[in-house]
Specification:
Oligomer: single chain
Number of helices: 0
Structural class: mainly beta
Shape: globular
Largest sheet: 7 strands, mixed
Number of strands: 11
Radius of gyration: 14 Å
Length: about 120
């Protein structure tokens, strides 16, 4: 299994920045890709960004691609999400997830989440 721990959330004013981190441990050799999701109260969980663990290919939803940057440090088994120009609508619990070689196409492991709150 892979264990995931998110950090870096907090309260920030609109227009500010935060950097989230997701540290992976356990069977990290099984990681094919990692991704960030978010979920606000009353809303469905939403995909935010993804990064391939080997090649580093990235993908973002349109609403964040000009403001957020996903990256990873393979040596540290850590994924990051740099969030700039934050908006109140970015307020949500942010979760990291792993897509493993054992089951391509599904996110098999999830972290506990970290709260991001953006005030007006």
């Amino acid at each position: 299994q892979v264990q995931l721990v998110e950090s870096g959330g907090g309260l920030v004013q609109a227009g500010g920045s935060l950097r989230l981190a997701c540290a992976a441990s356990g069977r990290t050799s099984t990681i094919y890709a990692m991704a960030w999701f978010r979920q606000a109260p009353g809303k469905e969980r939403e995909f935010v960004a993804r990064i391939d663990w080997s090649g580093g290919r990235t993908y973002y939803i349109d609403s964040v691609k000009d403001r957020f940057t996903i990256s990873r440090d393979n040596a540290k088994n850590t994924m990051y999400l740099q969030m700039n120009s934050l908006k109140p609508e970015d307020t949500a619990g942010y979760y990291c997830a792993v897509e493993s070689w054992e089951r391509i196409g599904h996110y098999n492991y999830w972290g506990q989440g970290t709260q991001v709150t953006v005030s007006s």
